[in-house]
Amino acid sequence: MPDRLRLILGAKLRALRHERGLSLKALAKKAEMSVSYLSEIEQGKKYPKPDKLIDLSHALRVPYDDLVSLRMDKGMDAVKEAIESPLVQQFPFELFGIEPQEVLRLLAGVPEQSAALVRAVGEVTRAYDARVEHFLFAALRAHQQAHRNHFPELERVADRLRQRVGATTPAALREHLESAHGYTIDTETLPGHPDLGRFRSVFARRENGPTLFVNGALSPEQLAFLFARELGFLALGSQHRPATSSWLRVESFEQVKENFEASYVAGAMLLPANEIDRALEHAFAQPTWNPEAMMTLLARFGATPEMLFYRLTERLPEALGLDDLFFLRFHHPQGA
User: Fold this and answer.
1) Which residues contact 335 (CB under 8 A, 6 or more apart)?
2) Which 3 state secondary structure label does DSSP give 189?
3) Model's pTM, two decimal places?
4) Could you give the CA distance from residue 250 to residue 14 in angstroms, rounded to a whole number?
5) How far is CA 61 from CA 29, 40, 67, 88, in A?
6) How many CA atoms lie within 13 A of 102 on its CB side?
7) Is 220's pLDDT higher than 60?
8) For an engineered disulfide with 238, which of 25, 39, 258, 310 has Cβ 3.0 to 4.6 Å away?
9) How many CA atoms lie within 13 A of 135 on its CB side?
């Protein structure tokens, strides 16, 4: 039974009981059920069987169909608005140790205030052209921050993959996708496609197996990351992975989280934790800062600056205890 059906019924029951001046105990007695069971129904924890719903409709003197329908009186519109808000429905509360049902029950318990809050958030998001997906990305960032962007299980997945594949060159990663997982890698179609040519890669499931369309003009470092991320999706058993390398449309928080996790695994495969930690310790142990150390790291691991600096956000807090990180990016042609 979907949460919103239980919550709407519970809110309607509570409102009707208050209208008729009945206590929980009095209504429970009239409907011939326990006070605790009636309380769970009002809280949205339980949805009664039809015979119990009939007893409640008789006790409250309301037609059965009106009681069980999703339609709500004008005064109760605020409850439905709060419960059915896309933000409330999609936000990953459980990621922060909060049961979604508890949030929905809280909203249903104070309907006018809840609806006012939901409307206020909606007005702010419209004013700043924000969408639900922005809140989902914000939730992911909060999740990363809470864990200092360090996820040991993902590091272990990357270690196992690296041992299984061996070399992490683009050729070796591609060969493993093709031979071990039946992938078809197409590097010709994407660059000339009128709609999809702007993507680095596009994933498609086909009858003869998965196909990864890749922009063949990418650098070796970029190709290695794309192939490693694809192995990450497979190793993690991702069910909600996005089809494109950059976001075309965000469908759920699960999709956002799975994309992050596969990307984390890819970075950890290409820049192993033990090796990069030693390199960082050596660089920070020098008496003066040597910017060439960063260039050495790029060459050593065959990484792009983007890959390296993102990996630093995963390793510096864990390896060196540096939590406050700030990056300023300057983008210009090489040699300019």
Assistant:
1) none
2) coil
3) 0.70
4) 37
5) 15, 21, 10, 32
6) 7
7) yes
8) 258
9) 20
